[in-house]
Specification:
Low-confidence stretches: 18-26, 141-156, 356-360
Helix content: 25-40%
Mean pLDDT: 81
Radius of gyration: 21 Å
CATH architecture of the largest domain: Alpha-Beta Barrel
CATH class of the largest domain: Alpha Beta
Number of strands: 19
Strand content: 25-35%
Number of domains: 2
Shape: globular
């Protein structure tokens, strides 16, 4: 049985796919989400939530921006996430999906009105192979029959929010990138091993510049170890992992950083000459090396592994300097007395009647 949060209650489902399909509402309402990784600390009998406060900031800001009245404050949202952990009791690494959506379904998305919070857990899986990925630039001039660039997508919603409607596009574009890579280089890159670099554009001209990968942010590094991030205004999600990577690289590795617009021609030339390397960041992907861009080999940044190790230690609460980056949730019984069970008919059931197993 899988337990999810919807609105103001815990709901129970026998089919694990059912709540995901019902809650996300990708195509049927104005909705947004944030996602973070978590883990079970067996030695201390507790769960850890990586960078939890930043993800709470994101979803609460998004709900406020969209003017969705979901009826939960920060403390109530925190407690709801804790409840879902205590009901599901995961022991494998997991992904926490926290969403907010409008109650209005089946109409053109508009800001404002009543909304609902949803929370559920997913498995993490292998997002990218450890050796890194291959990237192709999703250039609208490369193939006219592919709707690849954001130049061809109407900017109906802001990209700085993690909106589900945007991620429907991104998922399609990620699949497309894998197909393009396999077609151009005549080989299957394997699950998760290819991604697309998406281009932005200047209205009224054909000048294209980097934005991000389909579901991850880009970070460029030059020979002096200076980090370049894409300006927040340029069609990108202001990524939590990207901001954390920038902070850790500056504080722990002594790197300098800047934000600058990067033209696609300038980027290709810098990659080809070896003056610049590039990697991607994301809550699920972590810090992932990009091995090639459009078939051009990319030299791996000499300090990427050092930064990857540091990031993983911080994410798991093992770095003293950054222990505040993990929210710890003690194992124990849920506090809710009842949940709504979804079978052929919905009904309330007592928490005490549920078959909880002892935590391993």
């Amino acid at each position: 049985m899988k337990f999810v949060w919807r609105g103001d209650r815990v709901h129970a489902f026998e089919d694990e796919k059912e709540p995901i399909e019902r809650i996300k509402g990708y195509r049927y309402s104005l909705s947004a989400f944030t996602g973070l990784t978590g883990f079970w600390d067996k030695e201390r009998g507790r769960w850890g939530l990586s960078f939890f406060e930043m993800h709470l900031d994101r979803i609460l800001y998004t709900a406020e921006y969209l003017q969705l009245d979901h009826g939960m404050d920060r403390g109530q949202l925190r407690q709801a996430v804790h409840e879902i952990l205590r009901f599901n009791r995961p022991t494998d690494p997991f992904y926490v999906h926290i969403g907010v959506r409008s109650d209005e379904v089946g109409i053109r998305p508009v800001r404002g009105g009543p909304g609902k919070i949803s929370i559920f857990l997913e498995g993490t899986g292998a997002y990218h192979p450890p050796e890194g990925i291959h990237a192709v630039v999703l250039d609208p001039e490369f193939r006219d029959d592919h709707q690849t660039s954001r130049a061809k997508y109407p900017r109906a919603v802001p990209y700085h929010l993690k909106l589900n409607s945007n991620y429907v596009q991104y998922g399609t574009m990620k699949t497309e990138a894998k197909e393009i890579y396999a077609e151009r280089f005549e080989k299957d890159s394997g699950p998760g091993a290819a991604d697309g670099i998406v281009l932005g554009w200047q209205p009224g001209c054909r000048e294209f510049f980097l934005t991000e990968c389909t579901t991850s942010n880009l970070i460029l590094v030059d020979k002096s170890d200076e980090i370049t991030l894409i300006p927040k205004a340029d069609f990108i999600l202001d990524g939590i992992t990207q901001r954390l990577t920038q902070r850790f690289a500056e504080e722990a590795l002594g790197c300098k950083s800047r934000r600058a617009r990067v033209h696609i021609t300038e980027f290709r030339e810098a990659i080809r000459s070896g003056d610049v390397t590039v990697f991607e960041t994301g809550s699920s992907a972590g810090l992932t090396a990009i091995r090639s861009v459009d078939g051009i080999p990319v030299k791996k940044w000499s300090r990427l592994e050092e930064l990857q190790v540091l990031y993983e230690k911080i994410r798991k609460g093992d770095e003293d300097r950054y222990r505040d980056q993990v929210e710890w949730v003690e194992s124990g019984p849920p506090s809710a007395d009842e949940v709504i069970e979804h079978r052929e008919t919905d009904r309330d059931i007592r928490t005490a009647d549920l078959p909880f197993q002892e935590q391993a």
